[in-house]
Amino acid sequence: MASIMLCSYFKEDCTAVSHCCCSPITASPAHALILLCCVNPALGPFLMRLPFSSQVITYILSFLPIADRKEASLVNHTWYFAAQDSLRQENILYNIPATSSSLAAIESLARRRVSCVSLTSLDSSTVSRDVIQAVSCHLGPHLQSLCLRGSSLTETSFMHLLLACPCLSSLDLSGCNSLFMSGTLLSKPETIGQAQRALTNLQELNLASLRYLSDLSFNRLTGCAPRLARLSLARCHLTFGFDPYRGSSNYNSSALLSFRNLLRFLKEQASSLRALDLSGTSITSPAMRSLVQVEGLCLQELVLQNCRDLSNEAISLLCTHQPHLTALDLTGCSELSDQAALAVSAGLRALQSLCLGKLQRLTDRGFLGIAELRSLQRLDLSECSLVSGSELVKVCSAPELRPNLASLSFAFCCLLRDSSVLSLARSLSPSLRVLDLSSCVSITNVSIQAIASHLPRLTVLRLAWCKELTDWGLLGIEERNHRREKDAGPQFSRNFGNMGFFLPPLQNLEQDPKVLSDSAWNESQKQHRASLQALEQLQELDLMACSKLTDCSITKVIRFPALRRLSLSLLPELTDASLVAVARGCQSLERLSMSHCGKLTDKGFIEAASSLRRLQHLVISGCSQLTGQTLEAISRECRQLKSLDVSMCHGISMADIALFQAQLPLQTCVQSRFVGGADLSFTL
């Protein structure tokens, strides 16, 4: 009802908003929400007339991406508070650096009752103590998620912060080695009692990458959290073969973290624990046998990335004793082969997410039973060099067998061919949203046109290093054969060697896509072949190192209102025309990478910057023609910028960077290696 009312208002005053929406204004909720995506302060007087309550506005904003909600909050006070309510309902994580400027922001976040924060760069300094004090005082009472990843805070500061957060359900202490170095954390009886009251509702605990974590400190901390459902010990120094206790039941070693003690914990928490991450540990097959057979343990998620000692037999045992798994990550378990994949297909019928990346022994035979995984939504086969996708194509070709895959990755699978991409695109059209074909060097324009024709709902598309893609493919135009019928010399491949027998360059400029006229482009749009522009819902696009792409296609098809991330790095033929077209056609961009595009100049950035108001991360390293004028335009227009990489930009000096940082002093991190024409050979 609210959306219909909104549409009626838009129809009455369409002239007020026609400048911010390319779609025709119709009385449908979808168009109303699309129109809201383009909200800007200039629209304020019009939107202020809408008689909506805060609850109705909050509901409408819940359909929009976070960046659009931030823009909508600028309309007036009602829209501002409605936007804050919408953000709070989704538990958005706020990053708070340990700087003096964060103190005022913390008080502002307290008024919004923010429940999820990440504190970065904490140490023993006075500023860090002030930030901890402010968070404890203003945010602590209603914090539900606290991330301290990589911090170097003291035990006293940690306990002060912890005791101020009685409602915590998630705590991330990964990489906080200073907390565990002395081994005295929670050593006093009175602090244990206080911690138990603070962590009584804790469900998720991340202890990854803690080199000083021992059985004693692990027991003290987990003993305060009786309701843990998720635990991560990734990259911790767990001992599996050595038993330091030799039959003793007092597992409180202060020197090491043992698998025997972990088993004791699992037995005690078996009724509540649902997710476990042991990535990067040296877990063995006997240890896996003991883990999966813990009485009452019913895991739903298990992450075992880079556990290189795991065998096929261990995975078979896992599938037999933990059949309720919905997510399994075996990326980098190098000893696994087809037998492990077949065991997964046969034993884990409820699986929704499966990651088998970097399994060099895995072949297409391992997917003979994948039709059994009817609930599978995510499949990652990146860097499986012997996988061509042929078995997956067979399964997906049968409607009654194919899973409803929403995410599929074949990155670095060099055996993948156009025929497989075409079949998968046709079969997975209703469900697929994320597709990663990075470094699939054999795919050509046939694949990109199949994707554009059959996968219009894609939100993420990665095609980095697919060097056979050309302008023809992105434009959706059939490539013409320019080979001369009568060629005097033999044709050699690059593998034969550089002997000067390559074909001469194209001579028919009228057929060269670099000079494609607007009339020819409009005519091609009337044909049935779809261009990349058909992917209207794209939020991320990676075309890095697709070196045959030029201004001809980029200026015509990179026009995606919802696009958030774009990589056009290592495209040497791109000029200012592409930069300006991208900026105007993708005004929601938050991350843009155009490194080593040597033809970009200051003129392009001066013209494009005003259309990149939402930009937060910009990479333009190796763009040798850029000077301080580019930095001046960016600092003036891109006020939300958080990081900038101008490494190896010879025309930019350290003085230019210092001036830029002075204009954006609070939030911008600048990477400036080898700027100002530094001699790389000498410096390196």
UniProtKB/TrEMBL annotation:
* GO process terms (BP): SCF-dependent proteasomal ubiquitin-dependent protein catabolic process
What InterPro entries does this protein's entry cite?
F-box-like_dom_sf, FBXL15_LRR, Leu-rich_rpt, Leu-rich_rpt_Cys-con_subtyp, LRR_dom_sf
- Keyword annotations from UniProtKB, A to Z: Ubl conjugation pathway
A Gene Ontology term for the protein's cellular component: SCF ubiquitin ligase complex
Q: Where is the F-box/LRR-repeat protein 15-like leucin rich repeat domain?
A: 200-397, 530-659
SMART domains hit by this protein: LRR_CC, LRR_RI
In the record, which residues are listed under signal peptide? none
Keyword Transferase found: no
In its UniProt entry, what is this protein called? F-box/LRR-repeat protein 15-like leucin rich repeat domain-containing protein
What is the native source organism of this protein?
Gopherus agassizii
Write the lineage as a comma-separated list: Eukaryota, Metazoa, Chordata, Craniata, Vertebrata
